[in-house]
Structure formats: structure tokens, C-alpha cells
Amino acid sequence: MLEALLFLIISLITIVCALCVVFQKNPIYSAIFLIQTMVSLAVLYILLHAQFIAAIQVMVYAGAIMVLFIFVIMLLNLSKADIEGERDNLLFQKSSAIILGFILVVMIGVVSVKTVFQGVKGEYTPESISQIGNTQLVGKLLFTKFVFPFEIASILLFAAIIGAIVLAKKKIIEDEKA
Amino acid sequence: MLNALIFTILATIKICIVVGILLMIIAYLIWVERKVMAHMQVRLGPMRVGWHGLLQPIADGLKLIFKEDIIPAQASKVIFVLAPVIAVVPALLSIAVIPFGDTISIAGISIDMVITDVNIGILFILAVTSVGVYGIILGGWSSNNKYSLLGALRSAAQMISYELSLGLSLIGVIMISQSLSLVDIVNSQAKCWFIILQPIGFLIYAISAIAETNRCPFDLPEAETELVAGFHTEYSSMKFALFFMAEYANIITVSAVGVTFFFGGWRGPFLPPVVWFLIKMALCIFFFIWLRSTFPRFRYDQLMKFGWKILFPVALANILITGLVMALL
User: Fold this and answer.
1) Which residues contact B11 (CB under 8 A, 6 or more apart)?
2) Which of B:37-66 have CB within 8 Å of A?
3) Contacts of A28 in chain B (CB under 8 A)
4) Does residue B123 sit at the A interface (CB-CB below 8 Å)?
5) Which of A133, A147, A157, B265 is a good FRET partner for B57, with 20 to 30 A between their CA atoms?
6) In this complex, do B127 and A59 lie within 8 Å of one another by their Cβ atoms?
């Protein structure tokens, strides 16, 4: 009963904040609403008995990634004219966003009709997870069943870091030449 | 139903007591810091209000409440008001999972001396304190002041950099105790404090904890010589006091986590557990004040170089060595 009420309130907050991210004019306010969205998602994870994922969600997304977002927005130092200035038509972006959004909605719809509404339960229900221990289960699965995607993700991130260093170095070398 | 009711009432009482004591400690910590630093520098410190200035925190608090609350004209008001709150709430929240003593039983009901023992314990603290950095960033940005913005950017970079080594320094302890819960970590230190098993981990924790709380010698976000007062330049009255409270609450949190992870938590002979916990925490806080009155401030490039090139690799090596030793034994 209490859980259902909490779920309703938190999911409402999540949706409202997510909409605010899109409709705010000032990028800083968008970023702040995005942080709030991340934090409410973490609460939803806790309602699913996934405490580990919830903590990581707050730590990584709200605590680290969004700080860098805000950092960049502040350093760009947008003036009022930049924020409210002339509007581009953005015809290509708008039309592709509508098409892709439609595809996403259809996909989510198909998946939820096939599983959620038929009451199909997966292997790891909240009850079974809370018996083994959330953190232990995530760790065990990451290093056994899902070790290949896990390692691939780490290689991808590593490549991204090296790419960032190469891009930053290039600028410095050019500056020194000039 | 009855059990749930008792649980709720107990939890509420515990929260009220712990937060009340925490706020008292924060108020008197400012007095302690001024007194200790004064005596280290051959001064007397506050003497006028009460016996040896004991009523000074109350006088300061009243003064700050009655001061005019100034919001700069060009500031973005909502965020300017919100920022001190964001700074102080996570700092107070993180005390929720720290155990103060063993389970005691009063009138047949057994009471854990911890507000809540969640199985992700330390991750909860790290997650909640990582949100605290927004108080500083948003406060600095919304003031519409160059010094504030520079202080905020500095502190954001500093806190993100040292958060990594802080988290990694605790992993050695977590590997030995096989649990993230702080209660389990204290229980696994019954025979031997983890500072003996993890000396390097403790050193890294101590250094990055000081940097995380923006204390001297890492108090660059508010370096007076360069940035006036850093991120809280434009703040006045109670909002300024909230930033102050957040800083001291963070000191208490990192001291409490340090005690729990490396000094056996509430364990100790003769005296009751809570007293042992408070004594150990007081010694940690004294160490913080001692550092402040001893060391000069780092330079910013030194700080970043030290964090990324020395502290971070050493923390990783510590985890590797701990894992190797555990696998071999």
C-alpha cells in the first residue's frame, strides 16, 4: 500500500522533472531538473529492492556526470541573447525526433504487452534478490554471465578516454607551433 | 502491525536524538576549533561570552539569525536560496547509517545503536555526500560573482578528483570484511583494527577526506588571498551559517566513517561503546584542527597533480596488493 503510494508520487516527480528538462530555456535549470530525475529514478530502484543500483545511480549520474555537465555549461558562460536569441528551424532534428520517438514508444509498448501485462516473471524477482543480497548478486553476474559485455564496455570507455586525450593534446601542440 | 508501529516510533526517536546531538556538536565544534587554534597560536580565543567563551556559539547563532539577508540583484534567486539547503541536507543525512554502539535491550525491546543498517551502508554515504557538491557549485554560480564562480569551479574539480581516491581507499577494508554494511565492518574489527591491516588505505583516506571537506591545507575553494571568500562570497546571515554548518557536518561525517572503518568503531574496553565512539571521533576532529593551524595552503596545480598522479595510483595499487595477499593466504 505504502509502496504503491510512494511509487505513484516518485514516478510523477520523475516524469514532471523529465519534461522540465526539455522545456526549460536556461541550460543550467535543465541540468538541475535532470539531476532531480536521476535521484527520483534511484528511489524507484530502491522500491524494486535494487539498493546497489540505486546508490550507483546517484553516485555516478547525479554525483559525477551531472557535475561535469554543469561545469561545462558554466564555463561556456552563455549570455541571455544566446539562450533566448533567434530560433533555428531545426526541421531535420524535429522530424527525426518525432519518428524515432514513435519507434521507441512502439518498442516499449510491444515489450510491455509481451511481458508486464501477461505477468511473466524473470529469473531475478525482488524476493530472490533480497535473499542472496543485492550487491553480491550484481557482482557475481557481472563476472560470470555478463563478463563479455562488461569487458567490452570497459574497452569502449578506455578508447573514449584516449580519444579525449588525443583531442586535447592536438590543441596544445598547435598552440605551441603558432 | 504492532511491530511496524514500534519500529516507526523507535526510528523517529533515534533520528531526533542523533540529529539533535549532531547539531549541538556542530555548534560547539566551531567554539572548539577557535579555542584550540587560539591556544596553538598562543592566544586565548573567545573569552567574553560565558565562562571561557562557552556561550559564544549561541551568541553567534542569534547574531546570524537577526542579520539582514541580502540576495544580490542579478542573482538567480531560487537557486541562490536552494544552494545552502542542498549543501547541508546531504551532510546531515549521511550520519544515518553510522553505528554508535552494540545492540542494547530496554524493557524487552532490542534496540540497534544505529538509525538504520542498510546493506549498502558505505555506498549510501558516498552517494549522499556526492550530491553535497551541488550546494557549492550552484551557490557559486547563482551569486553572479566572478570570485564565487571561480571558487565553485575549483571546488567542483577538487571534490570530484578526491572522491575517487576516497572511495578506492575504503575498498581494501570492504574486501577484508566482505560487507558494505557499517555494522558488519565494525563487527569484523573485534580482533584487530583495520588501520593495522590497511595502513596505506588509511593514509589515502585521511588525505582525501581533508580534501573532500575543503579543509586546510586543501581549502582552495575559499582561498582568501585569491578569491575573497570563494563560493560563499555573496552569502549573508542564516544562509552563510548553513554553509558553515555543512562544512562542520561533513567533518563529523568523515571522522565518523574513518573511526568506523579504521579504528574499530565503537569497540573499546571498560567505557560504554557510545563514549568510545565519541572519544575516537573527537581525536579525529582534533587532528583536522591541528592540520589547519599547522600547514599552509596547497597551490592549485599541486593539488590536482597530487590527487591524480600520486593518490589515485597508490589507491589502485593498494587494492591490487590487498587482493593478492587475500588470494595467497
Assistant:
1) B115, B116
2) none
3) 76, 79, 141
4) yes
5) B265
6) yes
Mutate to test the interface with B, among A135, A138, A161, A165 (most CBs of B within 10 A): A135
Cα(B164)–Cα(B159) distance, integer angstroms: 9
Measured distance CA(A58)–CA(B31) in Å, rounded: 34
All 3 cell numbers of residue B260? 568506523
| Contacts for A129 with CB less than 8 Å, ≥ 6 apart | A49, A50, A137
Alpha carbons within 13 angstroms on the beta-carbon side of residue B290 total 6
Residue B122 grid cell = 558505505
- Cβ separation B124–A70 shorter than 8 A: no
Are B174 and B122 in contact by the 8 Å Cβ rule? The answer is yes
Q: Count of alpha carbons within 13 Å of A155, Cβ hemisphere only? A: 6
Cβ distance B163 to A58 less than 8 Å, yes or no, reads no
Residue B208 and residue B198: Cα distance in Å, rounded?
15
Interface contact B149, partner A, CB < 8 A: yes
Q: How close is the nearest chain B Cα to the Cα of A54, in Å?
A: 9
CA atoms lying within 13 Å on the CB side of residue B15: 11
Helix (H, G, I), strand (E, B) or coil at B113: strand
Distance from CA of B188 to the nearest CA of A (A): 18
Crossing angle between the packed helical segments B273-292 and B237-262, to the nearest 10 degrees: 120
> Cα separation of A30 and A35, whole Å?
9
- Using one digit for the tens of pLDDT, what is the confidence trace for A74-116? 777 666 666 665 666 678 888 899 999 999 999 988 888 877 7
Residues in B closer than 8 angstroms to A56, CB to CB, are 123, 127
* CB B215 within 8 Å of CB B158: no
